[in-house]
Amino acid sequence: MRKIEEITQGVKSAKENITKQEKALREAITPLKQFGKNYSEFVLKPEEALEKLLQEKSGQVAGAAFRDDLGGIDFVWGKDGKDGYGLAHILEKRASN
């Protein structure tokens, strides 16, 4: 019975930690206007965020992913070309290789 209590407490602790991280990330998210429309419905949903940006070919998802060592990670469509950035730039580079 003690093992079950330990496991239950561990699960509760992990859930509380995740909830705290999610709250901190949601509070820290500040979309940048220069990156266009922010698709906030995809916060902490990195795969869905990538799919949305690939579909729209514009905009951003502020806080699309999270890592303990980095914090919130934003995904932006960006632009291609020599001075490009974001997913557009990555896709252009991959296509040319």
Account of the protein in words:
- The structure is a single chain.
- The protein has 97 residues and is an alpha+beta fold.
- The protein has one domain.
- The chain contains 3 helices and 2 strands; from the N terminus they run H-H-E-E-H.
- Strands 1-2 form a two-stranded antiparallel sheet.
- A hairpin with a 3-residue loop joins strand 1 and strand 2 (71-76).
- The longest helix is centred in the first third of the chain and has 27 residues, at 2-28.
- The model has no long low-confidence stretch (mean pLDDT 88).
Ordered list of secondary-structure elements with their pairings:
Blueprint: H1 2-28, H2 46-56, E1 60-67, E2 71-76, H3 86-96
Antiparallel strand pairs: 1-2
InterPro entries: PBECR1
Protein name: Phage-Barnase-EndoU-ColicinE5/D-RelE-like nuclease domain-containing protein
Q: Rough shape?
A: elongated
Q: Could you say which structural class the secondary elements and strand pairing correspond to?
A: alpha+beta
- What's the number of domains? 1
Number of strands: 2
SSE run: HHEEH
InterPro entries: PBECR1
Organism: Helicobacter pylori NQ4076
Domain Phage-Barnase-EndoU-ColicinE5/D-RelE-like nuclease: 65-95
Pfam family, one: PBECR1
Brief sketch in words of this structure:
The chain is of the alpha+beta class. The protein contains 3 helices and 2 strands.
What attributes does this structure have?
97 residues, alpha+beta, two-stranded antiparallel sheet, 3 helices, 51% helix, 14% strand, elongated, PBECR1, Phage-Barnase-EndoU-ColicinE5/D-RelE-like nuclease domain-containing protein
